[in-house]
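Table S5 (text form). Sequence records supplied for joint modeling of the two-component complex.
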Amino acid sequence: MSPSVPLQEMIRAIRSARTQCEERGVIQRECAAIRAQFRQADNGGRSHNLAKLLYVHMLGYPAHFGQMECVRMIASPRYSEKRVGYLGAMMLLDEKQDASLLITNSIKNDLSHSNQYVQSLALCTLACMGSAEMCRDLAPEIDRLLRASNSYIKKKAALCAVHIVRKVHDLGELFAPAARSLLAEKNHGVLHGAVVLIIELCERNPETLERFRKVLPDLVQIMKGLVLSGYSPEHDVAGISDPFLQVRILRLLRILGHNNEGASDAMNDLLAQVATNTDSTKTVGNAVLYETVLTVLDIKSESGLRVLAVNILGRFLLNNDRNIRYIAMTSLQKIVGTDHNAVQRHRGTIVDCLKDQDASVKRRALELSLALVSASNVRSMMKELLLFLSSCPAELKAHAASGIFNAAERYAPSQRWHIDTILHVLTTAGGDVRDETVPNLIQLITNASELHCYTVHKLYRALLTDISQVSVSNQSEIRFVTEDDVLDALETVLQSHMSGPLTACLSLHHFTTASRIRSIVSIYGSCIDVELQQRAVEYNALFKKYDHMRYATAR
Amino acid sequence: MIKAILIFNNHGKPRLSKFYEHYNEDTEQQIIRETFHLVSKRDENVCNFLEGGMLIGGSDYKLIYRHYATLYFVFCVDSSESELGILDLIQVFVETLDKCFENVCELDLIFHVDKVHNILAEMVMGGMVLETNMNEIITQVDAQNKMEKSEVSLTLFDIYS
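The corresponding structure-token record, covering 716 residues in total, follows.
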């Protein structure tokens, strides 16, 4: 009889419930039975009951009454009971509960158990939910296990040490020597654990970081072994030898080489070797390459290596795998400030990614494209960006529009081009343009006095085709368009509910003639919007009192 | 660091929830619901990375997921983990489950969730990657299962002797 059968029976019963209510009923009955069983002194099915409770807990039902049972199970001499007990402790207990203190002694005993699997249960639980006191209490034991045990235990002890250091920072000093000696191990699991531990120690303490720079040659040696050695069936994953360990070591190298010339020099050759030797046709290879790129870009690497790294990112942008394209974009975004010229070389590919189907890739491509606009490429980039704007997803429109405005403002080759661009944006995505950009636009148009006529024409045409945020700013210089036509258009704008009060305000501002104005304006004298109301009343007053001065004041 | 590992089906029913940081029961369920909501909206041809939801962490955390038939495997990780590395790890996890259960399907995970926890415990410990070699993982899991089985038969022996 497999120990799990009663659990499976309960699962079957829960699944056969047809409604949420029925399920609740089944679970309540089961929990009541479990509770009763817990209260009994000793029974053969203890581990089953706790397992059932944990299942119920996963579904979201309260299970706190099982906490003491976990404590009892952990103290049991039987492996099956310990196993469920420890699992329960990890799921139901945390340092805030009193029950967690009670398991400290059991963990302590189990850490020196003759059976490695019992030791491993204790290590796992300590690493998951050990409190600061438990960690302080048990740290010497962990240190002992780091030095003198088999590889299975050593690898678990290493990660347990990481947890301890996170909880009690000063204990880092205790583990540093053991961590260093672990690098001589052959077992990859242990090496991996050792590297994770060293990373944690270095990140916590700059002095420790300084000391660990001395083991750089050892790390380089290990990496070389992984990258250049022949086929090793034990560690091979699609032709790469233990890619997980390679990635982890590269992460440590990054930390050691950051802001340090000496360390960066020492790893330069190795990084170049990894970058050129790693097979990029498989995904595991790409994980290693990507980590190499990140390391190269984060340390004081020489420029040739940096260009190599950016080129790898450029190649990633052409990869069929969306994930690869996405992370390449993210990385390029981070370095576009520091390695601008290198990233510019891949501008074409980046702009192509604006057409990618994936919304996250599109977003990244947009941000990157905006960052790459410069005086020399502004015309061609703007063409692409405006094209993007016309078909981009709704959630990106506002960001794209304001980005284009900023870029246009910084690099516009001429005022006419600038106005054209702005009008183009307004007509394509007027509704998404942020309100605060409109006054800037008006300011710009006001300043470009020789283009007023041109602007008015374009605005009028734009008004006719699309009524939204396209507000007419300088209508007083009308020459070829009749005033009535303009008034018609403006009236439509006012009446259209699509344009916000802002547009209406601006429109009101520039009526210059016709008594039609008064009738329209007086309607707005009782408008809900306070600003409109105010303007309407003001104008009405103006019209009544100072009829002859209308032209002068209308501006 | 891995903050949580969640497996749920296409309707959001949890099949495994492992949290490496403590949350109370209600928050755990909320996280599962929110994660399901975020992940199930995704198209099939977008990338497998999502910025994390509000509950589980904020800007430093990402959700890295894979969709296999009726199940979503979601790892919530911070920036210390390599995104591509975690994707590969999910692959190793699923392949290991496949080896242990012989052509694993959702029902296997439902009825043997305790075994899935045991397998996961040999791969990830305290939120950190422990072992990535599939053969090594399976060897250890088998040895532990043997120990449990031998205990059961010992008990029966006690009863009848």
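Note: The helical segments of chain B are 25-40, 83-101, 106-111, 113-121, 134-160.
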